[in-house]
Amino acid sequence: MHGGRETLGNARTVVVKVGSSLLASLEGGLDTAFIAGLAGQLAALRRDGRRVVLVSSGAVAAGTAELGLPARPADLALAQAAAAVGQGALMQVYRTVLGLYGVPVGQMLLTRDGLASRPRFLYARNTLMALLERGVMPIINENDVVAVEELRLKVGDNDLLAAAAAQLADAGLLVILSDVAGLYDRPPSAEGATLVPEVRALTPGLSEAARGSVSGVGSGGMETKLKAARAAGAGGIPLVVAGGREPRVLERVLAGEALGTVFWPEGRRESSWRQWIAFGSPASGTIAVDAGAAEALVRRGRSLLACGVVSVDGDFAVGDTVGVAGPDGRELARGVSNLSSQEARQAAGLRSGALAEALGRDCGDTVIHRDNLLLLERPP
Q1: Of 10, 57, 162, 179, which sits most exposed with the smallest number of CB within 10 A?
Q2: Are strands 285-289 and 321-325 parallel, antiparallel or unpaired?
Q3: How many domains does the chain have?
Q4: 227 plus 346 within the same structural domain
Q5: How far is Cα 141 from Cα 159, in angstroms, rounded to an integer?
Q6: Are residues 229 and 289 in the same domain?
């Protein structure tokens, strides 16, 4: 369980994510003055004995400016070209400004699809730990040159990558610096919008409050930060979203000052295996369940049985990660399926003991075993 904000200072490993809107503009390219100030804050955390990982957006925005383009490219190949140009410029600036503080840096280009492979997830973790153990600050960015789907959909914000980095590093705190001061109770542009200082439960209603905070430079918004909070929370990691232009923002957050919004983990820290199931690997399909099965999963910690399956969407194989949707259509869990999508359709509604006969093989009684399942919703 967590205490108050004063406990944030106990974190010995801190992951800091910085959004594109702080790092660059489409007209002027990289904001070197801001990056220099950020470097000083990161160096101060290290002098305080903390291990620091930086997750940086900004490659596409920086490249867009360097190529003289009027706006973020809609064409996929051009967006990837901008990322290729901007990534080098971004790292050059980081290496220079952090070098002034004697901080060596190492670049890690990752994709969430790449981390969906369990071996690659572990290789990335080993690399990250090796850098930290040798006093090198890892700088992580999404590999936009190959992250095709994220760029095409313009949702390739690094918030979820930052949560994955926090899991990889066994971090004690994730801080997302944004051009928005935190989560508001309604879109921040709306009259009377009020900052929410802390969130102790990620309820469906929070998504409504999270809408309307997308900048013109970045590609994410507060909704992606809610997803990042859920992923970090599974690892027992608190997340703070704060305004990146606040003076000494990192020092003040770690000192327990009431800046931004803190999202507290809701339950116990899940195993790294369950974290990877839910947030490291994308769902290959969805299994919809009835109210009884949803109740058994969420409130009683049971496995998913075939009798509770209503319908199956997507094409997946045995061992793939799938989402589990309740009667209202919301995804309430993710898990590793014991059945293929075709078998799951055949098994839908069958009672225990009837699976082997229906499928022609012995596959036990569970569609998803509780040891291979992580809840995304907590009971109210």
Answers
A1: 10
A2: parallel
A3: 2
A4: no
A5: 11
A6: no
Instruction: Kindly state the tokens that stand for 290.
Output: 């009835």
Q: Who wins on pLDDT, 31 or 352?
A: 31
**Within-domain flag for 142:** yes
Residue 153 lies in a domain: yes
Residue 55's CATH number: 3.40.1160.10
pTM value?
0.78
Give the long-range contacts of residues 92-99, CB within 8 A, separation 24 or more. Answer: 93/30, 93/32, 93/35, 94/35, 94/39, 94/54, 94/56, 94/139, 97/32, 97/35, 97/36, 97/39, 98/39, 98/42, 98/43, 98/137
Q: Which of 219, 167, 197 is nearest to 21 (CA)?
A: 219
Enumerate residues 6+ apart whose C-beta is below 8 A from 380. 203
pLDDT of residue 13: 97
Q: What is the pLDDT of residue 218?
A: 43
| Cβ 344 vs Cβ 309: under 8 Å | yes
d(CA 59, CA 90): 7
Residue 225 has pLDDT above 60, yes or no: yes
Which has more confidence, 124 or 313? 313
Question: Does 179 fall in a domain?
Answer: yes
Residue 166 and residue 254 in one domain:
yes
Distance, CA of 241 to CA of 206 (rounded, Å):
15
Question: Residues of the chain with pLDDT > 90: what percent?
Answer: 44
Joined together, the tokens standing for residue 275 give: 């974290």
The reported pLDDT for the residue numbered 154 is 43
Q: How far apart are CA 46 and CA 28, in angstroms?
A: 30
Are 101 and 235 in the same domain? yes
- C-alpha 174/C-alpha 22 separation (Å) is 17
Q: Is residue 278 part of a domain?
A: no
166 lies in the same domain as 296: no
Q: Decide if 174 contacts 163 (C-beta within 8 A).
A: yes
Residues 324 and 235 in one domain: no
Per the structure, the complete domain to which residue 221 belongs is given by 5-273
Q: How many residues does this entry show for the chain?
A: 380
**Which of residues 245, 273, 301 is at a domain's end?**
273
CATH of the domain at 338: 2.30.130.10
Strand order in the sheet with 373-375: 309-314, 285-289, 321-325, 331-336, 373-375
How high is the pLDDT of residue 147? 55
